[in-house]
Amino acid sequence: MASSNDLDIVRVTKQFGAHFAVNDVTFSVAPGEFFSILGPSGCGKTTLMRMIAGFENPTSGDIRIRDKSMIGVPANRRPVNMVFQSLALFPMMSVGENVAYGMTCRGVGRAEADERATRMLERVGLKGFGDRQVTALSGGQRQRVAIARCLVLEPTLVLLDEPLGALDLKLREHMKIELKQLQGTFNTTFAYITHDQSEALVMSDRIAVMNQGRFEQVGNPRELYHNPGTPFVASFVGETNRWQGAVSAGSNGAVTVRLPSGVSLHGQGQAVAGDALCFARPEAIALASDAAGLSALSNRFEGRVSAVLFDGANSSLLIDTPGFGQPVRAVLPQAGALAGINVGAPIHLGWSSDAMKVFAA
Amino acid sequence: MTTAQRLTLFLMMAPAILWLGVLIVLPHVEILILSFSERVAPRVYQFGFGNYLEFFTEPLYWRTFARTAIMSILVTAITLVLAFPIALYIARVAQGRVKAMLLLLCLLPFWVSELVRTLGWMMLLRETGIISYMLRMTGLADQPVELLYNDGAVILGLVYGGLLFMIVPLANALESLDPSVVEAGYDLGGSRWTVLRRIVVPHAMPGIVAGSIIVFMLTVGNFATPVLLGGKNGLWFTEQIYAQFITRFNWPQGAAFGMLLLLLSSAIVWAGLRLTRQGLGTTLRQA
C-alpha cells in the first residue's frame, strides 16, 4: 500500500549484543510535520535517529522515506539531512562553503552553489556572512548555519539531534521559536529528538515519548500533557505530583485510591485492583484560604506552606499536607489573592477527580 | 618582574640557551666563517667565495645536491602516502589498548640503532640475502638477485626510517577531528573521496606539514642509509660533505657544502609551508 507519509518506521529494532537500544518501534511522519521524539538519555532516541540518517542499520524492520525503503542505502544517498548535537560545522570552510558543500557534492556547479548558498543565508538571517569563518560566529548563528546547510539541499526530512543542548537558556528559548518559524516558512518535515520536554511541547505538532527503546505514547502536545497514557509519560512530560497507594474502589473510570497513611483520593483511570500511581498537575491544584472556596472539588485537604518557589508566572508552593509523604506542589497564581503568601501560613487545597490520573503501579 | 622571578626564569632557560648557543649556533657560525676562507698557499687562508664557486662549476657536486633534494621530496611523499592510512586507522578506528599497541609497534624498530636497522635491510636485500634466496627457491629467479645498491633500496630504507615521524604527528592531528564532522560530511551527500579531500585532509594539514618537515629534514641529512644501501650509487650530498671533511681534509669546502645543505632544506621547508598555506607556528604545535 502506497503511503503518503514522508517517513514510515516499520517495526524497527536495533540490538547491541543482548541490549535492545530500539525495540519494535513503529511510527509515521506526515509531510510538513514537526515530529519530536522525547525521552531521557539512553532511551534509544539517538540510535533511532542515526538509523534514519543511515549511520546505523536496524537489526530488523524497515525505514521508508516517501515510500522507498532506505535499508542498504548509505547515508550520503538518503534524502535526509541531519543537524548534529555538536552542529558539526566544517571548521576548515567558511560559512558560505559550509552551506554550499552539500550542493557541490551533488554536482551543482560552483557558481550556482555559491549563489544558492548566499540566498539561503539571507533567508535564515545571515546576509553577508558567507565569507566569515564558522569559528567567528555566535552560538545562535552557528545554529542557523547548520540548519541552512541542510535546508539548502531541500531534503524530504530534516533530523535534529538535540541541537539546542549547547546553548544558554535565553538563547535556547529564542531558538525554539525561531526553529518553529523556520520549519513553517520552509514547510519541511522535521524530526527532532530531545530530552527537554519544554522544547518538544513548544515546537512539535506531534511527540513520541520514548523510554527504554520503546514508544510509550505518540500524540500531540496537549494529549500527552493532559491525557498521559502511561505513568512514565505522566511523570516525564511536565511537572506533576506523584503518589503511590492501593485501589480501594473503582467503577466506570472513577477510581478511589487509599494512600498508606489512610487518606483517600478520587481520580480517573482504569479500575484495577492492587497498587496504583496517582498523578496531579500542580496547576490543577486549587488553593484557597478557607474550605468554602473548594467545596465543589472531590479531593480537599488542609496544609501549611513549607516553601514558596517564586519564579514569576511559574511560581509555585510546596505545601506540607497531613497524610501525604511529600509536600504537595501547587501553582501559585501571581494575580490571585494568595500571591503574597508566606512560609508557615495555613492553606486549603483541592483538586477535582478529573485532574488526577490513576495508573496501575 | 621581581628579581627572584627573573632569576628563576633565567635558570630555567639556561639549559636551553646553552644547548642552542654552544651546540648549534656556535658551530654553525664557525662553519659559516670557515666556508668563506680560501686556501691561497699552504697554511695561508683568505676571505673569498671560491668554495661556493667550486660547487657550481663542478657538475658532480650540484648534481648530487639536486639529486638529494629530489629524492628527499620523493621519500617524503611516499612516506606521507604510506603513513596516512596507518595514522587514520590508529587515530579513528583503533581503541584503547590496540591503539597503544599499534603506536608501540611503529616505535619498536627505533629501539635498535639506525646502523643496525640498515644492516638488517642489507641482509634482506643483498645478493646472498633472504629475499634473493626466496626468489630462487620459489623459482621466480634462476640466479641470485642483487637488490642492494640502487635508488630503490635507498628510498626503501629512508621511507622505513621516516615512517614513525610521519605517523605520530598525523595521528595526533587526525585524533582531534570530531567524528560528527566526518558524519556530517557523508550526511550532506559527500562520497568517501569528497570527505577525505575536503574534510579529513584539510583538518590534518598541520600534521601533514609537520610530519613532512621532520621526515624531509631527517632524509636530507641522513648519511648511513644512502651510503650503506646505495653503495657507490648512493650519491647523497652528506657523503660529499663527509668526503671533504674527512677524506680530502678540505674543511672550508666541506663547510660551504654544509651551509648549502642548510640553505636547501630551509628553502624547501619554506616553499612547502607557502604551498600549503600553513604557518610555522601551528605546524610546530602539531609536531
From TrEMBL, chain A:
GO (cellular component) term, any one: ATP-binding cassette (ABC) transporter complex
Supply the alphabetized keyword list.
ATP-binding, Nucleotide-binding, Transport
The keyword Transport is assigned to this record: yes
GO-annotated molecular function:
ATP binding; ATP hydrolysis activity; transmembrane transporter activity
Q: Which SUPFAM superfamilies match?
A: MOP-like, P-loop containing nucleoside triphosphate hydrolases
InterPro entries on file: AAA+_ATPase (IPR003593), ABC_SmlMolc_Importer (IPR050093), ABC_transporter-like_ATP-bd (IPR003439), ABC_transporter-like_CS (IPR017871), Mo/tungstate-bd_C_term_dom (IPR008995), P-loop_NTPase (IPR027417), Transp-assoc_OB_typ2 (IPR013611)
- This chain belongs to the protein called ABC transporter ATP-binding protein
GO terms (BP aspect): quaternary ammonium group transport
The entry sums up its family as follows: Belongs to the ABC transporter superfamily.
Pfam families, sorted: ABC_tran (PF00005), TOBE_2 (PF08402)
Q: Among its keywords, does the record have Cytoplasm? A: no
User: What sequence ranges are listed for the domain ABC transporter?
Assistant: 7-237
Q: Which organism is it from?
A: Microvirga brassicacearum
TrEMBL record, chain B:
Localization (cell): Cell membrane
Q: Which GO terms describe its cellular component?
A: plasma membrane
GO biological process terms, alphabetically, are: transmembrane transport
Task: Report keywords, A-Z.
Answer: Cell membrane, Membrane, Transmembrane, Transmembrane helix, Transport
* Domain ABC transmembrane type-1 per the UniProt entry, residue ranges: 65-272
Which regions span the lipid bilayer? 7-29, 69-90, 102-124, 152-171, 207-231, 251-273
Top-level taxonomic group:
Bacteria
Q: Does the keyword NADP apply?
A: no
Predominant location category? membrane
The membrane topology noted for this protein in its Swiss-Prot or TrEMBL record is: Multi-pass membrane protein
Which family does the record claim for this protein?
Belongs to the binding-protein-dependent transport system permease family. CysTW subfamily.
Q: Which PANTHER family match?
A: INNER MEMBRANE ABC TRANSPORTER PERMEASE PROTEIN YDCU-RELATED, INNER MEMBRANE ABC TRANSPORTER PERMEASE PROTEIN YDCU-RELATED-RELATED
Report the protein name in the record: ABC transporter permease
Q: Which organism is it from?
A: Microvirga brassicacearum
